[in-house]
Design brief:
Blueprint (H helix, E strand, L loop, with lengths): L8 H29 L7 H18 L6 H20 L5 H30 L3 H19 L5 H27 L5 H28 L1 H11 L11 E3 L5 E3 L2 E2 L11 E7 L14 E6 L1 E3 L4 E3 L23 E2 L2 H5 L6 E10 L9 E2 L2 E7 L11 E10 L13 H14 L10 H7 L6 H13 L6 H12 L11 E2 L13 H9 L1 E2 L1 H14 L4 E7 L11 E5 L3 E9 L3 E5 L6 H4 L17 E11 L4 E11 L2 E14 L4 E4 L2 E2 L10 E6 L2 H5 L8 H6 L5 E2 L2 E5 L6 H7 L8 H36 L6 H15 L9 H13 L3 H14 L5 H8 L2 H11 L2 H7 L3 H7 L7
Helix pairs in contact: 1-2, 1-6, 2-4, 3-4, 5-6, 6-7, 12-15, 13-15, 20-21, 21-25, 22-23
Length: 868
């Protein structure tokens, strides 16, 4: 084929090297970042970049010829969509089909996007301007939404996009404007690009160097452009649930959502009373901070790490996970007790673990069926908590029992004053104070406020009382607000602005200021992150409801021998203490599961309602047992609820070979307390026969060996690689068949439209399209000739047809806009089919065969002003 080229070879090569290749590199950078956040991409940034680059390269070469964009791009999208739909219906397996179709969808989107970009670079002069504008706007939007806390982070996020945008516009214009595409073109272009690179590096480096202080101040003051009104403590996940942020920074304003996150029952009361003693629900700690931006962060390398942070979704139902090392690392031996809690999540991410400090145990449990519409998951926790701990500190209750407890608590704490025996590394880490001038100001305030306090406990109380103090007019000195504003002076610190001027802020301000004040006094402290616990209910004692606006940060102080104690200096926030609506009815707590056994069903008796379970692992009285050899346990299912994927099913649906978890709340199991070192085998031998079971949860996973599983119930064979390969061959064959049939389908479409049209309407147009398309496919090309020249010079003399007379009618209808006479309409009605039959007789069979299995020739029909 002799397709006319629209783009000189040197210009095309320059665009491939200097425009498309850098764009592919930028695409890799963007895709690499996207792969960090979206698991569906499967961390294949390099492979996906090849998809994008292939689309750009192929399109650039393809459109360097004078080929129309819209028809070919539409055809590409149609082919990609057809393949995707075919893959989605593959009968390989549900997972494989989904995986393959999603992978192809990623390919299709990236290839089509690359195709569009490649076309723009070749055909549109100002495409680079449009592309750079889109990239810069997207970059600014992402930075505005992101939490960029440092100058380096800001430059890393924005500089590459800025440099690429300027480069691509500059280079594109150089390629288009230089008319001489000979060898001089390369010298001209290379020289310009080297000069541009040096100049860009000097300008960017100079701006950063000269304005480094101003940039730092801006980032520090505004937190990298974090969006005003953002919830300072939580972020929303892709599935609609919420998680606590891994960093905290004072902002000019935040928003507070009212969604219910979770509810919890905490079994903790004041001594010898039925008065609930609420405990804050802790998720993690901030022990690291960026002094410039005043951003508090998590630090997994903190000394004596006492954080227990399991993912409840990764633990099987009724199984348990514990970590006794966090109890040791909490370094609190005195006045300690174990507190049990149950947490029922609604909008809080199911993978987030919260518990009263210090959590060391978790066990996923079921939600009562009447409450499953509201609460999605639930888990039990155990926490190693100081008997002196309490959520009451600023929010003192008027109840005399609570006031008495507070006084007793402080009296005990006043006895612990000596940090000399503590590990120096521990003290250095948890009392570290930066040397910046603003922190010296905070230290001076702390020493002034605590001048008359002798013990660490009294100093903490003095700082609390300072935040609760009144000014000379008798008004509250500090106020809680979600909109504290920002300092008028750009380089001012938000914490200093809070402490010295406006005295307004939310928990990030109070906790941050308190942390630095305590550390400046040599008192080890850190910030705890979780949820504010408020006892709002006169009923349902021990139950607490947690809304999004109760996401909170407070200070924990270490006392030798006592461990970490909660202290909250955030002054009263009536909005957070008052729920947006009355607390609901708490879910019914399931009875304690004394037995939870995992195994494979090996026998079922529906008449006797019994089941034999081959058990390898079980939990009994909160102790975990793994058997050296699996044992068969006979179980009584007369009152048991059987659930498959959270849906109740009858016993008759139970099948051999299914994995199941059997749960018992029976009194007889409660009384069978295991001896201290009793083996799992010995315990199972003491079970009643059959053992009473209350719930059975069916799963899909197999735990038996392959030969054992096949003896019980042979399973379907896995999909073989041969089957996948043959499926791939079938897809390719289907695509090839579609392409081979495409020319015939196009002709059939034209004939169909011709037959359905009215001779007085657009029937002549469809006759013209069908006739010229058929002639094109059998090798009689129009090229640059007009339709009349084509009929006169190429068709009628060679084939002896009457195309000229039809063309007169067609052109009259098209350009003169005159109505056709009856004779002309009759000519149109009787033209096409005899014409096609005549041409068929006059052309060789092999030409017709080759033409109508050649999709490339069909594409050539839609090419403008070509001679194919």
């Amino acid at each position: 084929m002799n397709i006319q080229r629209a783009t000189p070879v040197n210009e095309l090569l320059a665009k491939l090297i200097f425009l498309i290749l850098p764009t592919a590199l930028v695409g890799y950078f963007l895709l690499w970042n996207a792969n960090q956040y979206y698991s569906i991409l499967h961390a294949q940034a390099f492979q996906q970049t090849l998809y994008l680059a292939a689309g750009m390269g192929i399109a650039a070469i393809f459109y360097s010829f004078r080929i129309r964009f819209l028809p070919t791009f539409a055809l590409l999208l149609l082919v990609l969509y057809s393949i995707y739909e075919g893959l989605d219906r593959l009968a390989v397996s549900e997972f494989d089909s989904f995986f393959i179709s999603v992978q192809f969808l990623v390919f299709a989107i990236l290839f089509a996007t690359g195709w569009l970009v490649g076309w723009g670079f070749v055909r549109l002069r100002y495409w680079a301007v449009l592309l750079s504008a889109v990239l810069l706007c997207s970059c600014i939007l992402l930075i505005a939404k992101a939490n960029t806390e440092s100058v380096t982070g800001l430059l890393e996020a924005f500089a590459p996009a800025l440099l690429y945008s300027v480069y691509i516009v500059f280079t594109s214009e150089q390629i288009y404007s230089y008319k001489d595409k000979s060898k001089k073109f390369w010298w001209f272009l290379s020289r310009r690009l080297v000069f541009f690179g040096i100049l860009a590096a000097l300008l960017l480096g100079g701006v950063v160097l000269l304005m480094k202080k101003e940039i730092k101040e801006t980032v520090a003051n505004y937190g990298g452009g974090g969006k005003g009104g953002k919830n300072n403590m939580m972020h929303k996940n892709h599935d609609g649930t919420f998680d606590l942020d891994s960093m905290m920074q004072p902002r000019g304003s935040i928003s507070r959502d009212k969604e219910l996150m979770f509810c919890a029952h905490i079994d903790h009361y004041f001594p010898n009373t039925q008065i609930p003693n609420p405990l804050y629900m802790t998720a993690f700690y901030y022990t690291k901070f960026d002094t410039l931006s005043e951003t508090f962060e998590k630090d997994s390398a903190m000394p004596d790490n006492d954080l227990f942070a399991p993912d409840p979704t990764q633990i099987p139902l009724f199984s348990m996970k514990s970590d006794s090392s966090v109890i040791k690392n909490a370094m609190g031996e005195k006045f300690r007790t174990t507190v049990e809690s149950e947490v029922y999540t609604k909008m809080l991410s199911p993978s987030t673990f919260v518990a009263p400090n210090t959590g060391f145990f978790v066990q996923p449990i079921t939600v009562e069926k009447d409450f499953r519409e509201e609460f999605k998951t639930a888990f039990r926790t155990k926490s190693y908590v100081s008997e002196l701990n309490s959520a009451y500190f600023v929010y003192n209750s008027p109840k005399p029992e609570i006031r008495k407890f507070q006084e007793q608590r402080f009296e005990v704490m006043r006895k612990y004053t000596d940090y000399s025996q503590m590990d120096p590394k521990f003290m250095q880490y948890y009392t570290y104070m930066p040397s910046d001038t603003k922190f010296k100001t905070i230290s001076d305030l702390a020493h002034k406020v605590t001048a008359n306090a002798q013990t660490p406990a009294d100093k903490i109380i003095a700082i609390r009382d300072y935040f609760l103090s009144k000014d000379e007019n008798g008004d509250q000195l500090y106020h809680y607000t979600d909109n504290p504003g920002v300092p008028d002076i750009p380089n001012a610190s938000k914490l200093l602005y809070f402490l010295n001027e406006n005295h307004k802020g939310y928990c990030a301000y109070f906790a941050g200021a308190t942390l630095f004040m305590l550390r400046s006094l040599g008192i080890p402290s850190r910030i705890a992150v979780g949820f504010l616990t408020v006892d709002r209910s006169d009923k349902n004692k021990g139950w607490y409801w947690y809304y999004a606006d109760q996401a909170h940060a407070w200070v924990q102080v270490y006392f030798p021998g006592l461990g970490w104690m909660d202290f909250d200096t955030t002054v009263g926030n009536s909005d957070a203490r008052e729920s947006p609506k009355p607390d609901g009815t708490p879910p019914m707590q399931p009875p304690k599961a004394w037995l939870a056994a995992d195994g494979i069903v090996v026998d079922i008796d529906t008449a006797k309602k019994t089941m034999d379970l081959r058990v390898k692992h079980f939990i009994f009285h909160d102790k975990e047992y793994n058997l050296p050899d699996s044992m068969t346990v006979s179980m009584d299912l007369k009152i048991a609820e059987i659930k498959r994927d959270s849906i109740d099913v009858p016993l008759s649906t139970l099948q051999k070979g299914e994995e199941a978890t059997a749960v018992s709340y029976a009194e007889v199991m409660k009384k069978m307390e295991p001896a201290e070192k009793e083996s799992g085998t010995s315990i199972i031998k003491r079970f009643p026969v059959p053992a009473p079971i209350d719930e059975v949860y069916l799963h899909k996973k197999d735990v038996l060996k392959k030969d054992e599983k096949q003896k019980i119930n042979p399973q379907e064979k896995p999909v073989s690689i041969e089957k996948i390969l043959w499926t791939g061959v079938g897809i390719i064959a289907a695509i090839l068949l579609f392409l081979l049939l495409l020319p015939r389908l196009i002709l059939a479409y034209y004939i169909f439209r011709y037959k359905r049209a009215d001779a007085a309407g657009n029937k002549s147009y469809w006759a013209y399209r069908a006739a010229t398309y058929y002639l094109h496919q059998v090798g009689i090309f129009r090229g640059h000739l007009t339709p009349m020249q084509y009929a006169n010079a190429k068709v009628d003399p060679k084939l002896g047809t009457n195309l000229v007379s039809f063309m007169n009618i067609y052109l009259k209808k098209k350009y003169a806009k005159q109505s056709l006479t009856m004779a002309e309409q009759e000519n149109v009605d009787n033209f096409l089919m005899p014409f096609l039959q005549h041409v068929r007789k006059k052309t060789q069979f092999k030409k017709r065969l080759y033409g109508f299995v050649n999709p490339v020739r069909s594409v050539g029909y839609f090419v403008a002003d070509e001679e194919v």
